[in-house]
Every structure is written in structure tokens, then in C-alpha cells.
Amino acid sequence: MSRTPADEGGGPRALPPVRGHAALAHHIAAGLVADEFDLSYFQDKPLDHGCFSPLSMLWPHEPDWPGAIVPLQVGVLEFPIPSARRALRLQQHCLGHALPLAYLAHLNHQLAGIDTLPGTYPFTLARSVKGYRPNKFLHALIDPGRRAQFRTDPESLFERADLTAEERHLVRSLDWRGMIHYGVSFFMLEKLGAVVGVSNLHIYAAMRGETLDEFRKTRNAPGALYSVAGVESARERPSWAAVAKP
């Protein structure tokens, strides 16, 4: 995937898009977290002068850049900022690790043995990348206008979000379990549940192919229904839907 220069106020810089290397980025990210560096990952964002200004002096770029990059952004504007020692450790990590089997085992140690647990679908970086479009789509339901449009014309929203046919079917059919398997975060399912009028417990029950009452019988403390729905949902939907689709 290529990244274009960001518009930082006066239009994008007259530079060609630069290619990224997703597989290497995933490897570096997994290794940094395994070595206890705290990271946030970003997709769908252009790169700014922090990348393109030095890169344009280091690399020829007419008509294109000669290679791909993995951008790492370090915050240094607001104190406290990372120390020089911390920056050196980051450099040593990125330059000092290749692909020895021992290191691969180290960076994947949290997932060791996961394949022996049937029905387990960890929310990995790769799965989150796959599910980026539906996750972004469902997160946008925090906007009141989006919620209103979703209730009346979801298909137009699907089109605007460029969801695939499979992604549209998962959302349209309220296939909660299917969405988790695909790569949708449960926190996004909560937002969809609030809009369509079901609680978190309805969603849990549906994932197990059970009614709410059947699911509650399996709990030591059945508890009250809960969700992220607020006053808007309480006003528009005074009671929970009786059934969530399994």
C-alpha cells in the first residue's frame, strides 16, 4: 500500500506516494511489543513532513521512490518525551533482530498453543487489519446522524464505506459470531447492538446459539442487561429487543 503526502494546510507536497511494507511492519510491531515497547498502530492515514522532508533529501524520488518504508512515529512534542537511551534501544531492536527461530518464538509467545484451543480467534494485528473496514464503519455509529441513517438506509452507508459483499452480509444479518471471526472488535459490536436495540448479553447469547434466558441459566450471576446505549436509545427503544439473531 502506498501513502500520499498529507495536506498540512497548503495542499499536499509535490512528492510521489511512498510504498509501505505491511509484512515487515507487522513483524517489527510484534517484536517491539514483545520487547515491551508500547505501540499504537495506524492505517488509513497520510504521512506528513516528519517523513517526507528528510526522505526527500535522502532518496531520489523522480518519478518514484526507489523502495518501501515502515514509518515509526515517536512523539517528542509534549513532555515527558522518550530519552535518548530509549531511542537507542528502539534503534538496536529494529536493526538487531532478523528472523531466527528463537526470536520468532519470543515475539509469538503469547499465542503459543492457541491452535490447540478449538473456537479460539485471538484479535491479532493481522485480524484487525483484515477487519479494518467494518471496524471503522461500526465505530462511526457514535455519530447521531450515522445512527439515524443506519436505521433507515444502511445500504447507502455500506456503499460509502466500500464494505465488501461479505462484510455487508455480516453486518446486515447481525452475525455477531461471524463478525468476531472476521476481525471485528467486540467494542464495535457493542455500538451496533446499541443501535439495533440489543444488549451485550443478547449478543453473548446469540454467539452461543441460545436465547437470553438460556444463556442466563449458564451464569452464576445472571445480572442485569447492559450495553453502551445512552439516553437516545432509551428514548427511541424503551425496551430491549426480545431476541438477538443467533
Helix-strand makeup class: mainly alpha
- Total domain units: 2
From the 3D structure, determine the CATH topology of the largest domain.
Answer: Protocatechuate 4,5-dioxygenase, Chain A
Shape call: globular
The N- and C-terminal alpha carbons lie at a distance of 36 Å
Largest sheet: 3 strands, mixed
From the coordinates shown, what is the CATH architecture of the largest domain? Orthogonal Bundle
- Approximately how much beta-strand content do the residues carry? under 5%
Order of helices and strands: EEHHEHHHHHHHHHHHH
Order of strands in the sheet with the most strands? 1-2-3
Number of helices: 14
CATH hierarchy class name of the largest domain: Mainly Alpha
Radius of gyration: 22 Å
What's the CATH H-level superfamily name of the largest domain? Dioxygenase LigAB, LigA subunit
Low-confidence stretches: 241-246
Please state the average pLDDT score: 87
- Fraction of residues in helices? 40-55%
Give the tally of β-strands: 3
